[in-house]
């Protein structure tokens, strides 16, 4: 690594690279870049002298030392730093006037300083599990002490794993070295600098890939919907949006099909495939907008996500709901006849497109205590109507189940209390609307409450009993 000599702007500085040799008749040749030294810099053998050093003199200097037996050379970088701007010795007004008039007064006790500016050479890094990864950013500004540099990810500080900065003529290069990376380290890393004058940040996205054998796509995770591809309903005459969101790497492109025909932007459809979502660099999305839904839009839509290594498909089923009109309405009768002409099975197909909801999914446990469990789940297709939920649970080894009707009914997170300590329970959830009930969720979550006795009951009655000392 190149040697670095630090100096403070406005002060004198010395670079001493005196060589040792035998015989000791040594001659020196100093250069800066490919040029000879400017007159303002004095050389005496292996020593350079700077008077009132300026930031413009922050460069790489090369010295060549020779004796009758040979020649050697080395480089050194002069890092010119300055104190935080105060101007207390000359006063604020003279300083501001000098800036307006276009020159910078130099005083031994102060100098002009700059906030940091960061440049990254790449904004995305791909790696395989087990690889070593080195992230870097180039920083300019003055001063730039070592403690000004930081690396972090999702509020986790990686600064203790950062390599020592390497100073160059174009700025300060800061490194972060990660060894034997895993897919869990995929995410955004921030190069952050605070030099006391200002702050700056730049971001690099690390994508740790793995090969998914099921569809030959190289992904950070298997390309699945971020949410759930499934059934959706929309009222006739309104706008419908189908959102396809996947996690994959490298870059993903999308297209949409219906009845094996590729859809394009036109008066009917608007397809937005802007790519990277706001979450991270391995999340991609595409939105299909149907500008004005009518009965002919009822059916299946397919989103295809692909990159150079493979593709994945996700299906959406759109149910078109009729507007609320009396059945004997002349308009509705005309619309029903119009649909029958276009191939609808019967009049009831249009009269009521609503249906019972689909089963919720993603049932999981958020918290466990001695006498309570907190569950959460994700709603599925609502059947085109408002839906509510029921939770069923039973004790292990007992076939008698308890069913709870939730309040509020559309809750997707719920506390089940008054359970027994150190007891195993099985939980399921189902949805219902005015058209009927779904099946119970395919997941049957098994939970064992904690051991011990709890005097706290999450009801107002028990809370007051506890405060009053009533048992």
Automatic annotation (TrEMBL):
Residues 116-196, 223-319 form the Ig-like domain. Coiled coil: none annotated. InterPro entries: FN3_dom, FN3_sf, Ig-like_dom, Ig-like_dom_sf, Ig-like_fold, Ig_I-set, Ig_sub, Ig_sub2. Gene3D superfamilies: Immunoglobulins. Keywords: Disulfide bond, Repeat. The keyword Disulfide bond applies. Residues 359-452 form the Fibronectin type-III domain. SMART domains: FN3, IG, IGc2. This is NPHS1. It comes from Cordylochernes scorpioides.
């Amino acid at each position: 690594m190149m040697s670095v000599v630090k100096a403070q702007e406005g002060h004198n500085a010395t670079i001493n690279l005196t060589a040792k040799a035998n015989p000791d008749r040594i001659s020196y040749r100093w250069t800066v870049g490919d040029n000879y030294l400017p007159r303002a810099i004095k050389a005496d053998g292996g020593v350079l002298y700077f008077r009132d050093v300026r930031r413009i003199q922050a460069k790489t200097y090369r010295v060549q030392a020779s004796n009758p037996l040979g020649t050697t050379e080395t480089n050194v970088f002069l890092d010119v730093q300055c104190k935080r701007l105060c101007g207390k010795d000359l006063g604020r007004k003279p300083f501001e006037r000098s800036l307006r008039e276009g020159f910078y007064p130099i005083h031994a006790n102060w100098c002009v300083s700059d906030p940091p500016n960061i440049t990254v050479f790449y904004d995305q890094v791909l790696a395989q599990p087990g690889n070593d990864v080195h992230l870097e950013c180039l920083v300019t500004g003055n001063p730039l002490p070592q403690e000004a540099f930081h690396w972090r990810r999702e509020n986790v500080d990686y600064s203790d794993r950062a390599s020592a900065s390497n100073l160059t003529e174009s700025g300060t290069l800061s490194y972060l070295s990660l060894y034997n990376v895993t897919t869990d380290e995929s995410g955004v890393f921030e190069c952050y600098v605070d030099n006391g004058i200002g702050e700056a940040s730049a971001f690099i996205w690390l994508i740790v890939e793995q090969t998914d054998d099921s569809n030959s796509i190289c992904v950070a995770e298997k390309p699945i919907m971020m949410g759930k591809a499934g059934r959706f309903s929309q009222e006739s005459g309104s706008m419908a949006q189908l959102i396809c969101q996947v996690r994959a790497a490298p870059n993903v492109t999308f297209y949409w099909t219906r009845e094996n025909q590729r859809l394009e932007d036109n008066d009917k459809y608007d397809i937005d495939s802007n790519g990277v979502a706001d979450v991270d660099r391995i999340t991609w999305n595409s939105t299909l907008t149907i500008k004005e839904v009518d009965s002919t839009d009822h059916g299946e839509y397919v989103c295809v996500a692909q990159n150079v290594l493979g593709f994945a498909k996700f299906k959406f089923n759109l149910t078109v709901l009729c507007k609320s009109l009396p059945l004997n309405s002349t308009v509705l009768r005309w619309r029903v006849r119009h649909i029958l002409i276009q191939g609808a099975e019967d009049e009831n197909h249009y009269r009521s497109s609503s249906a019972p909801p689909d089963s919720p999914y993603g049932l999981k446990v958020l918290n466990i205590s001695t006498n309570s469990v907190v569950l959460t789940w994700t709603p599925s297709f609502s059947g085109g109507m408002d839906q509510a939920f029921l939770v069923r649970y039973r004790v292990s080894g007992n076939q008698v189940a308890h069913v709870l009707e939730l309040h509020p009914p559309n809750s997707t997170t719920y506390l089940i209390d008054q359970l027994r300590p150190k007891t195993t329970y099985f939980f399921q959830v189902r949805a219902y609307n005015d058209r009927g009930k779904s099946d119970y969720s395919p997941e049957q979550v098994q939970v064992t409450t904690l051991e011990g006795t709890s005097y706290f009951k999450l009801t107002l009655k028990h809370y007051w009993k506890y405060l009053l000392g009533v048992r």
